[in-house]
Design brief:
By secondary structure, this protein is α/β, with parallel strands linked by helices. 46% of the residues lie in helices and 15% in strands. The protein is built from 15 helices and twelve strands.
Length: 321
């Protein structure tokens, strides 16, 4: 019996893949006009659809909003009961409907026509009400639904979702949307953590454990304990980071009159550092590779002075590690 389930799964995926191939082959200059319509909008992109198309519309609106195109979803039924006020001149509207005849869309479509709000329609019937009323018509190809009965939205919703992704990526590329822009919209979760920069997490100012090269180790130990990182940076006469004193250095010098020594005599010179604009994920990989728990932050294009300290716990706190 397991084999039949697997056969079904493969058949569904194969049918939907074929539908996507048809969608790719059928794209024409109407797609370019849809992108231009969105780029020319001074306000937001309103995305709407009913039923399964509504679920796809919500995802497309979320993808647009998170990639630099302000957008939100408006439910067509709620639009008829006051939410039409969420649309204004300067906006553009993207409406999804496989049949193009969904009755709940009527008031929303009429509102765009009345107030000259650009309308992009997505449907599978070129002669449908939605596409005839649209300023830009994106026609989905005729493709079999993967359910086998033709009544469950499967291939059609997959094509619509892919078309929305295509619009979002085209807009991203036009706007030169970078990972840094993406991080601004995704500060939380694993994705936000992966795109965090060292400068966002590092300790600076009075929180930075630093001593001079001629500082007695008795004072350096107090600095290590006070700042709580288990290390202290050693600043040279020129202000540059000359070395670092770790617990390993302390153990190696324990029998050599440690407290009477100077920081320069105990430190490890040329410590591993990282730049402030490096990704926190890169810092974690470096710490893991070197088997260390913290990194001093030094701008490679700057003065060589320590600007901050990044501890592995700072990265673990945001979900990296």
């Amino acid at each position: 019996m397991t084999g039949s389930y697997l056969d079904t799964a493969r058949r569904v995926i194969r049918i939907e893949a074929q539908a996507l191939a048809l969608l790719e082959a059928g794209l024409d200059d109407s797609f370019d006009r849809a992108v231009e319509t969105i780029l020319n909008a001074r306000g937001r992109i309103i995305v709407s659809g009913m039923g399964k198309s509504g679920h796809i519309a919500r995802k497309i609106a979320a993808t647009l909003a998170s990639t630099g195109t302000p957008a939100h979803f408006v439910h067509p039924a709620e639009a008829s009961h006051g939410d039409l006020g969420m649309m204004a001149q300067g906006d553009a509207v993207l409406v999804l409907s496989n049949s193009g005849e969904t009755p709940e869309l009527a008031d929303l479509i009429a509102y765009t026509r009345r107030f000259a709000i650009p309308l992009i329609g997505v449907a599978a019937r070129a002669g449908s009400t939605l596409l005839r009323q649209s300023d830009v018509a994106l026609v989905l190809p005729q493709a079999d639904e993967a359910c086998g009965t033709g009544i469950v939205p499967t291939s059609s919703t997959t094509m619509t979702l892919a078309l929305g992704d295509a619009l979002a990526v085209a807009l991203m590329e036009h706007r030169r949307f970078t990972p840094e822009h993406f991080r601004q919209f995704h500060p939380g979760g694993k994705l936000g953590a992966r795109l965090s920069k060292v400068r966002d997490l590092m300790h600076t100012g009075d929180g930075l454990p630093m001593v001079a090269t001629d500082t007695p180790m008795s004072e350096a130990l107090i600095e290590i304990s006070r700042k709580g990182f288990g290390v202290v940076g050693v600043r040279g006469e020129d202000g540059r980071l000359a070395g670092i004193v770790t617990d390993g250095d302390l153990r190696r010098h324990m029998g050599d009159g440690l407290l009477a020594a100077r920081a320069a005599q105990v430190m490890t010179p040329g410590p591993t550092t990282i730049g402030p604009d490096a990704l926190a994920e890169t810092a974690v990989a470096l710490m893991n590779r070197r088997k260390i728990t913290c990194l001093f932050v030094v701008d490679p294009a700057g003065t060589g002075q320590a600007e901050g300290l990044l501890h592995i716990h700072d990265c673990l706190r945001i979900g990296l590690g």
